[in-house]
Amino acid sequence: MLIPRIGDATPKAAGYIMLAAAARPLEDLIVEQSAYIFSLDGEMSAEESEAMASLEQQRQNIKGLTAASDFAPENLLDMPSAYLLDLQGYEPAQAAARITKPLLILQGEADYQVTMADFEIFQKALGGKGNVSFLSYPKLNHLFMETKGEKSAPSDYQSAGCVDGKVLDDMASWLLRNGK
Predict the structure, then answer these.
(1) Residue 165 CB burial class (10 angstroms; 0-12, 13-18, ≥19)
(2) Is residue 128 within 8 Å of residue 96, measured between CB atoms?
(3) Local mean pLDDT, 10-residue blocks, the chain (180 residues)
């Protein structure tokens, strides 16, 4: 998500790789992730519904945040207001358009934390740029490890695993082609 900013600060880098990069605001991702997690066991419980209402209120707090706001982090999805204010209006996909060095964007298609919707935003914003390559991987989660279901779940992270070898091979090939 922050590679465009890192790119601005590191002009001597040969290129950049983005793995499961968020293109949408964090507050939106957190609410979406929570709704997905609560949906996994069927119907949402009363406690889960209350939690979702709280998350939605916190998202609205973030959307309306100003320098004069006086919210504690627990009312801002446990993030400091200075961080959130810094990200206000930041659009990673639009900012990535400034990158002129080689850029590789990778996405696990089974990722529930940063979804194919984010990947598609990057594709739409950067698809015509000759310096940008996109790769997505079916059955891989946010950590680029294989998941059994169509979409990963928090339980996938309870077992030790490794980044899929295809991802590592693709990154190595890209580095060999684009590194200097």
Answers:
(1) exposed
(2) no
(3) 94 95 98 96 92 97 96 96 96 96 98 98 96 98 93 91 97 90
Q: How far is CA 111 from CA 21, 54, 96, 148, 178, in A?
A: 11, 24, 21, 12, 27
Q: Specify the DSSP class assigned to residue 150.
A: S
Please tell me whether the overall predicted TM-score, pTM, comes out greater than 0.90 for this model: yes
How far is the C-alpha of 141 from the C-alpha of 71, rounded, in Å?
33
Pairing type for strands 132-137 and 16-19 reads unpaired
Question: Facing residues of 105 across strands?
Answer: 18, 134
Rounded CA-CA distance 173/92 in Å is 25
